């Protein structure tokens, strides 16, 4: 066993012990630790910002781009937002221990389910130091122990926050190893976390597509992740025009870099001549580049042709591909084939078509008359989210506290034996 | 791409198309296909039994052991049981399309969940031909397409059943590719199924431990599985003696080869002298070999010593390890450390200790005053089960129709855009 393997195994075993200790903690205990952490962050702003300054200087010296620097930088406002996030998590109901679905069996057994934590969660993430606090808080509130491995560029910021997290756990009587940190930038540790079957129960990567893709390919531990957000809005034959214009404009332009941004607009042939020119004018005010199918270009002759590759591309940029479809079936087929099963919305006033869309589109979030931009944990009322899942196994869509839990069966008897 | 990869990719793509077609099928359509299948099995008993006879002859020629032959053999009674299984699945409520947890958000959005199939399920199993019919029926009822790869020793039986399944689908207007068969005994196909990320959504292995273990190690597709059943009964300080004797005897001796059989008995020190000698007499009537810890052997001096390996062994045989513990914490720690997170039961009349056991034992099924032998899908009222999961991700314990589903988010709006 290599030193790195040994290091990860030790961390995971400490986390496992802490996980079993956490099973005895009440919601009150867990909330007290989160409250203490919020207080400590406020009281230690200077130390955190100093550590962050060190990371920023290193990052600038390494020539990291502005987007990276922006994600890395902390200030009083972002620390206040961290604390606000903690208060929101404190306010959420504790899912652990909830019992439901109890049924009485003919032999007198009462059988139901209890909501329980997953165990030890491995978080692997990039530059944003606020993930350290979010992830620690969500894992703790849901009764899980976690092992956090942040990006090397945020190392000092993360370690400053780590120190406060451990202090908050210690001062409120919870096991410090409930939140473990990989206190090294050795890349081998990531590889070893991904191989730690039976030691780590689930891996959650947060970061750019290349990180997430590499992790999901290499990992032998189950992964909760999302790779792409190729989201669609379909303007149906029976769409309300005002809603269609508003939603199609908002879904593309309110932010370009988010995974719930629309990347392809589908529009029913019968409405294209009426709606597309006005939409094109709206997009022009934001300099959005349009790329269209053959029929679209008959109406918007000045735009580029969209290739097959466009339908499968998450631009994360002011670019939009547009395709005309002859009916809802064609729209649904296109979405299921080219989309990333993230979030897709139909604009229609037709009850039956809305219901067919909801049923047949195979995505984590399916919407009627709403901008796709609403697909996130806060908007869904989950409180904070630890990520979004485009997988179908375990959890789909925004992942909040419930996504970090499982259910075990509870069987209550009175001496029953099986004949 | 190898021929085998191409073969599996073609199957998976056909299954995917069928999966999307199935989204339009009503419960009535799916039940009609299952009913037709039951009728066809009864009407074609001779053809099935002839094919099975061929498998039996090949298996005997190859020198397969009696247990294998027993699992392989079909007769009129087992075919009737298959049909009875189909009728039970027909009678189950269809989980697909269920909508719940709808909440009204402050911005007027109504957000909830819809239960949906997983997609394309790959089943890899060994000798029992009845798995072919069970798996096809459970996947179809839950709206999933499936690719079935049975054991080579059951090839002719499976192909005879496959023909009827395809006929039933065809005659009732459902896509035949909703149930695909790997009609070849090429072992490479299994390997290629396990690599078919994005083509197959989940793999469910059914068979011996070596098969399941190999599959879960190799698979890049998520796997729902259980490996070991190291189940415990803990006789607590406050156990009712009669219940303790009945449960401990039943959990070990009602069947030896099942995964929910007790393999280790834990008993509180204060009750050992009173209960263990009587239990030993009971086990002696069934020639169960006992292996004990040091303290146990002070009371039962004639039995073997249990090693550390015993605590981690699933005997699947008339052997039982026994350990005395000083308190409930020690029992829970032992179970969480050495058990397989399958099924564990406490015998106690103490309310508080029962509740602590339920909360702190980290197993798929946790029981009070019940024989562990009840841990299966039929006993839990799920109808048929497609397997048991000792994992925590996605589904724990017996896996019925619900375990083959996921939930997507439904967002109902009225033109909302995000500011």
UniProtKB/TrEMBL annotation, chains A, B:
Gene Ontology BP annotations: L-proline biosynthetic process
Gene that encodes the chain: proA
Q: Name the Enzyme Commission number(s) assigned to this protein.
A: 1.2.1.41
CDD domains in UniProt: ALDH_F18-19_ProA-GPR
Designated name of the protein: Gamma-glutamyl phosphate reductase
> Per its UniProt record, what Gene3D superfamilies does this chain match?
Aldehyde Dehydrogenase, Chain A, domain 1, Aldehyde Dehydrogenase, Chain A, domain 2
The UniProt keyword set, sorted, is:
Amino-acid biosynthesis, Cytoplasm, NADP, Oxidoreductase, Proline biosynthesis
The job of this chain, per UniProt, is described as: Catalyzes the NADPH-dependent reduction of L-glutamate 5-phosphate into L-glutamate 5-semialdehyde and phosphate. The product spontaneously undergoes cyclization to form 1-pyrroline-5-carboxylate.
The residue stretches assigned to a coiled coil in this entry are none
Q: Report the residue ranges that make up the Aldehyde dehydrogenase domain in this protein.
A: 6-286, 311-375
Source organism per UniProt: Alysiella filiformis DSM 16848
Question: Where is this chain's protein located in or outside the cell?
Answer: Cytoplasm
InterPro entries per the UniProt record, alphabetical: Ald_DH/histidinol_DH, Ald_DH_C, Ald_DH_N, Aldehyde_DH_dom, G-glutamylP_reductase_CS, Glu-5-SA_DH, GPR_dom
Per the similarity annotation, which family is this? Belongs to the gamma-glutamyl phosphate reductase family.
Catalytically driven reaction(s): L-glutamate 5-semialdehyde + phosphate + NADP(+) = L-glutamyl 5-phosphate + NADPH + H(+)
């Amino acid at each position: 066993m290599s030193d790195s393997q040994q290091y990860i195994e030790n961390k995971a075993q400490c986390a496992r012990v802490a996980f079993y200790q956490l099973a005895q903690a009440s919601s009150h205990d867990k909330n007290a630790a989160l409250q203490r952490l919020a207080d400590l962050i406020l009281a230690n702003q200077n130390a955190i910002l100093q550590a962050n300054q060190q990371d920023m200087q290193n990052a600038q010296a390494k020539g990291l781009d502005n987007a990276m620097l922006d994600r890395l930088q902390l200030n009083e406002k972002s620390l206040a937002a961290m604390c606000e996030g903690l208060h929101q998590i404190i306010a959420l109901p504790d899912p652990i221990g909830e019992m439901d679905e109890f049924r009485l069996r003919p032999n007198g057994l009462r059988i139901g389910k209890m909501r329980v934590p997953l165990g030890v969660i491995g978080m692997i993430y990039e530059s944003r130091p606020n993930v350290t606090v979010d992830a620690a808080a969500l894992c703790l509130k849901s009764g899980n122990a976690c092992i956090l491995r942040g990006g090397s560029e945020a190392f000092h910021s993360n370690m400053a926050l780590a120190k406060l997290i451990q202090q908050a756990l210690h001062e409120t009587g919870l096991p410090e190893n409930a939140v473990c940190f990989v206190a090294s930038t050795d890349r081998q540790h990531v590889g070893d976390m991904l191989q730690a079957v039976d030691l780590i129960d689930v891996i959650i990567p947060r970061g750019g597509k290349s990180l997430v893709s590499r992790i999901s390919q290499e990992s032998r531990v189950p992964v909760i992740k999302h790779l792409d957000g190729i989201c669609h809005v379909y303007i149906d034959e029976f769409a309300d025009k005002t809603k269609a214009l508003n939603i199609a404009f908002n879904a593309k332009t309110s932010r370009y870099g988010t995974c719930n941004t629309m990347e392809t607009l589908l529009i029913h042939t019968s409405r294209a001549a009426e709606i597309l020119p006005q939409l094109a004018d709206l997009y022009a005010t934001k300099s959005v580049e349009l790329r269209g199918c053959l029929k679209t270009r008959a109406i918007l002759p000045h735009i580029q042709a969209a290739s097959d590759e466009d339908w499968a591309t998450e631009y994360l940029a002011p670019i939009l591909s547009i395709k005309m479809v002859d009916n809802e079936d064609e729209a649904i087929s296109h979405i299921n084939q080219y989309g990333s099963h993230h979030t897709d919305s139909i604009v229609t006033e037709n009850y039956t078509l809305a219901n067919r869309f909801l049923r047949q589109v195979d995505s984590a979030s399916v919407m009627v008359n709403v901008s796709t931009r609403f697909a996130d944990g806060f908007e869904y009322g989950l409180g904070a989210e630890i990520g979004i899942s485009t997988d179908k196994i375990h959890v789909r869509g925004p992942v909040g506290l419930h996504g970090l839990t499982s259910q075990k069966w509870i069987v209550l008897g009175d001496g029953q034996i099986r004949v």
